[in-house]
């Protein structure tokens, strides 16, 4: 059998290469656009000949510096985003030519005003409902962003460029969705920690065909090994979906609390995993219209009403045979916090246990998380 562990270790070792590859691309003359959100239309950035790079936002280290300018009771993701930029400790921010922001929440859109002093920031005005008028508004915002890229980088974005990048990005979405689908098997062939590792590897692939093919190879070999009888993960663990706020380095403590207390994460619904990949861009429509429809359908909690998130969770609960849902909410993230009630209500109706974990980036609550998660998983036994 192929050694899946060696392949995962190779991915783990590759993670620090992301900043190096961005530095090399920048030195070769390629423009870099820093992004924070899954509403960022990667296809447009790539059609302009630039690289979209996800900026640092998930560590507590720069928060104290950010709090010199921002209120302390702000969401840690916003404070970390600004803190990394302010202290110049995010290599992706250091090399980016333009930052793409979006009005997903009041805290972020006001923070971008300060960040604009550090790098030029283009803020897309996101409609926060989904209807025909909103789609046209979002299409106009995508076209406005494309014009900004053309002006900044002295390029022309053609319809052919957009169609090419839409097709390429759709293929990337399919690759990751095929990998994520492995966890529908019972028992699953990967732990949640390993699923998250592959997600991080995908994030620093920047469309590189060799890295994407490596993910495809991992998926294929894992499926072959499974069919040959390999069971890497013990059966009988409670299958958990993680939903809620964006996840990253400082909230990995939640993943550990789940998997060290008898649970197994089979899916991350969060916007840093399944949520933005679940729907493809329609390749038959005019490019800007297709992009507007796809991106506006991402079920972020900033949308109202946001029944699409509940429907997605319901589908994932069934597809991944989940026993429970962990709703992860960052402190001061009001939209996800308010939605928790509806998440509990819908999951309870569908026979899944549900718990909301409100946390920050600081690591002082690890013991409390272990206690709560142990009790949650024991309750499902």
Helices and strands, with pairings:
Elements: H1 4-14, H2 17-27, E1 32-35, H3 42-47, E2 51-54, H4 63-66, H5 76-87, H6 91-95, E3 98-102, H7 106-115, E4 121-124, H8 132-153, H9 159-181, H10 192-203, H11 209-227, E5 238-244, H12 252-259, E6 263-268, H13 287-296, H14 307-319, E7 324-330, H15 334-349, E8 353-359, H16 366-380
Parallel strand pairs: 1-2, 1-3, 3-4, 5-6, 5-7, 7-8
Helix pairs in contact: 1-10, 5-7, 8-13, 9-11, 12-16, 14-15
Summary, kept brief:
By secondary structure, the protein is an alpha/beta fold. The protein contains 16 helices and eight strands. The protein is globular and about 60 Å long.
Tell me what the structure shows.
- The protein has 381 residues and is an alpha/beta fold.
- It has helices spanning 4-14, 17-27, 42-47, 63-66, 76-87, 91-95, 106-115, 132-153, 159-181, 192-203, 209-227, 252-259, 287-296, 307-319, 334-349, 366-380; strands at residues 32-35, 51-54, 98-102, 121-124, 238-244, 263-268, 324-330, 353-359.
- It has a domain at 11-160: 3-Layer(aba) Sandwich (Rossmann fold).
- The strands form two sheets. A four-stranded parallel sheet has the order 2-1-3-4, sandwiched between helices. It has a four-stranded parallel sheet with strand order 6-5-7-8, sandwiched between helices.
- Strand 1, helix 3 and strand 2 form a beta-alpha-beta unit.
- Helix 8 crosses helix 13 and helix 14 crosses helix 15 (334-349).
- The radius of gyration is 20 Å and the shape is globular.
């Amino acid at each position: 059998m192929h050694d899946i562990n060696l392949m995962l270790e190779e991915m783990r070792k590759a993670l620090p290469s992301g900043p190096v590859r961005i530095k090399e691309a920048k030195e070769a003359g390629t423009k870099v656009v820093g992004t924070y959100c899954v509403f960022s239309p990667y296809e447009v950035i790539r059609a302009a000949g630039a690289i979209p790079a996800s900026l640092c936002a998930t560590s507590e280290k720069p928060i104290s510096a950010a709090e010199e300018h921002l209120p302390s009771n702000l969401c840690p993701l916003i404070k970390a985003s600004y803190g990394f930029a302010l202290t110049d400790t995010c290599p992706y921010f250091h090399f980016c030519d333009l930052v793409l922001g979006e009005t997903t929440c009041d805290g972020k859109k006001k923070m971008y005003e300060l960040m604009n002093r550090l790098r030029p920031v283009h803020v897309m005005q996101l409609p926060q409902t989904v209807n025909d008028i909103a789609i046209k508004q979002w299409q106009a915002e995508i076209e406005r962003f494309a014009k900004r890229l053309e002006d900044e980088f002295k390029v022309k974005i053609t319809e052919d460029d957009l169609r090419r990048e839409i097709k390429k990005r759709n293929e990337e979405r399919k690759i990751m969705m095929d990998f994520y689908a492995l966890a529908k098997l019972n028992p699953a062939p990967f732990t949640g920690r390993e699923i998250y590792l592959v997600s991080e590897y995908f994030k620093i692939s920047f469309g590189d065909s060799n890295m994407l093919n490596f993910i495809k190879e991992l998926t294929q070999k894992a499926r072959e090994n499974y069919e040959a009888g390999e069971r890497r993960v013990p059966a009988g663990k409670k299958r958990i979906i993680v939903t809620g706020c964006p996840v990253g380095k400082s909230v990995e403590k939640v993943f550990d609390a789940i998997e060290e207390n008898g649970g197994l994460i089979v899916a991350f619904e969060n916007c840093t995993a399944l949520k933005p990949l679940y729907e493809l861009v329609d390749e038959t429509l005019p490019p800007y219209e297709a992009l507007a429809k796809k991106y506006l359908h991402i079920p972020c909690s900033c949308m109202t009403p946001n029944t699409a998130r509940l429907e997605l969770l319901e589908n994932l609960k069934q597809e991944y045979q989940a026993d429970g849902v962990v709703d992860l909410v960052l402190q001061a993230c009001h939209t996800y916090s308010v939605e928790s009630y509806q998440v509990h209500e819908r999951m309870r109706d569908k026979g899944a246990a549900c718990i909301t974990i409100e946390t920050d980036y600081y690591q002082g609550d690890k013991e409390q998380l272990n206690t709560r998660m142990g009790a949650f998983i024991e309750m499902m036994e």
